[in-house]
Design brief:
The chain has about 210 residues and is of the alpha/beta class. About 50% of the residues lie in helices and about 15% in strands.
């Protein structure tokens, strides 16, 4: 029996995932969590075969939670679920230790295959993403500028590009305004840009925001 922890802050999404899994005889939803801290607590106390992790829960960044999960339980497969298209987050979560990446849009069709694959210690990516990953190997020269950013810098870039002010970003990420301003300066420097307007244009052009 494959025991699964579902981590998502939307009860309706959790219910939908449970219904899909309920039809499979050798899989069971052993537990649910609605925020990152709950995920970490439950994984610390219990044994699961797979964690389904929403990358966009309130509070700490989903990438932070993923990294901590992999520190706590390095061998536990984590399948990331996200509303964000693959090109925005998939490569980052795989680098951070996830066993797979699945958009919520495709979850109903691909969820069972993905769970089965990661529970066997394999990676799960869509055929489109597999192609992209293969074409990226060894072409560092052509890597886009945003690939040079750390996960936190990338997160701040996306929030800036979505039109949020520094104060709003600070509040959302539980950081000081000064820290967010420092991140913004670093992002501009790494991406060789001079203004927020340039960052926004770049993010829109590269489809980094929904």
């Amino acid at each position: 029996m494959i025991k699964i922890l579902i981590a998502d802050d939307h009860p309706i999404i959790r219910e939908g995932l449970k219904q899909i899994i309920a039809e499979i005889p050798d899989m069971a939803v052993a537990d649910e969590a609605s925020n990152g801290q709950e995920v970490l607590d439950k994984v610390w106390k219990n044994d699961y075969d797979v964690v389904l992790l929403d990358i966009s829960m309130p509070g700490r960044s989903g990438l932070d939670i993923l990294k901590q999960l992999k520190n706590q339980r390095p061998k536990l497969p984590v399948l990331v679920l996200s509303v964000h298209p693959e090109e925005q987050y998939a490569v980052r979560v795989l680098r951070a230790g996830a066993s797979g990446y699945l958009t919520k849009e495709n979850a109903s069709d691909e969820l069972i295959t993905a769970i089965r694959k990661v529970s066997q210690g394999r990676k799960y990516v869509s055929s489109t993403l597999a192609e992209k990953l293969a074409s990226d190997i060894g072409i560092d020269v052509q890597n886009p500028l945003h690939k040079t950013l750390s996960d936190r810098e990338y997160q701040v870039l996306r929030l800036i590009a979505s039109g949020k002010a520094v104060k709003q970003i600070a509040s959302e990420l539980f950081l000081s305004v000064k820290t967010v301003s420092t991140y913004r300066s670093r992002i501009l420097e790494k991406m060789q840009m001079k203004s927020t307007a340039e960052l926004i244009r770049y993010a829109l052009k590269n489809q980094l925001v929904d």
